[in-house]
Design brief:
- The protein is mainly beta.
- The protein has one domain.
- It has one helix and five strands.
- Strands 4-3-2-1-5 form a five-stranded antiparallel β-sheet, with no helix packed on it.
- The relative contact order is 0.32.
Length: 64
């Protein structure tokens, strides 16, 4: 099994917990991380934020 998203790819982030600010932004995959609990993880960044976020693969979708 390989990572679904590539570094530099634009994605939508839908966190499991409610976070309207996070869900309304465009994110870029900064780094691919190893498997945790059977899912790949990623570091993602939004230009409007000064920090990176960690996200599970199931919380991301391809940006339309």
């Amino acid at each position: 099994m390989a990572h679904k998203f590539k570094v530099g790819q634009q994605v939508d982030f839908s966190p499991g917990r409610t976070s309207l600010a996070a869900a309304s932004q465009r994110y870029e995959v900064i780094r691919q991380l190893p498997l945790e609990n059977g899912q790949y993880q990623y570091r993602i960044k939004c230009k409007a934020e000064t920090f990176e976020r960690s996200a599970m693969e199931s919380e991301l979708s391809r940006r339309q």
